[in-house]
Specification:
By secondary structure, the protein is mostly helical. It is about 60% helix and about 0% strand.
Length: about 130
């Protein structure tokens, strides 16, 4: 009876990957020591190991690790969204835009700068018009 319970027990852990998803092939290439140092530094900044960084960079995948500066920019975007919502409420309750227009223009300029900053991180220079 005790053996029967052991057979149905969850083994836990991660399920094995399908054979087609396993990374078993290897690619090697030679670089100068300066290029290796640069790639290692870029990998550290991206928050990943060198192999993952090179693979994702080559395949043009979006890095999995988002730098704190980008996360801070997104948080600031959310805060400014709250400000925009408050301005809209004021405009609706007062039925006028006195004093709000200048603040709205400032928010729009902020959104444009922040959008360029965030896009600059995720897209190559040739793709920045997205």
């Amino acid at each position: 009876m005790a053996d029967n319970k052991m057979d149905h027990r969850n083994q836990g852990g991660r399920p094995p990957k399908v054979t087609s998803e396993k990374r078993t092939a290897e690619v090697k290439f030679h670089v100068t020591p300066d290029v290796k140092r640069r790639l290692q530094n870029e990998a550290i900044i991206a928050g990943t190991d060198l192999a993952t960084y090179c693979r994702e960079r080559y395949l043009r995948a979006i890095p999995r690790h988002i730098p704190p500066a980008i996360l801070a920019a997104v948080a600031e975007l959310a805060r400014q969204g709250n400000n925009l919502n408050q301005l809209a409420r004021i405009a609706n309750t007062q039925k006028g835009m006195d004093g709000i227009v200048i603040r709205l223009i400032g928010l729009i300029e902020f959104y444009e700068r922040l959008a360029r900053h965030i896009k600059g991180y995720f897209y190559d220079s040739k793709d920045r018009n997205r």
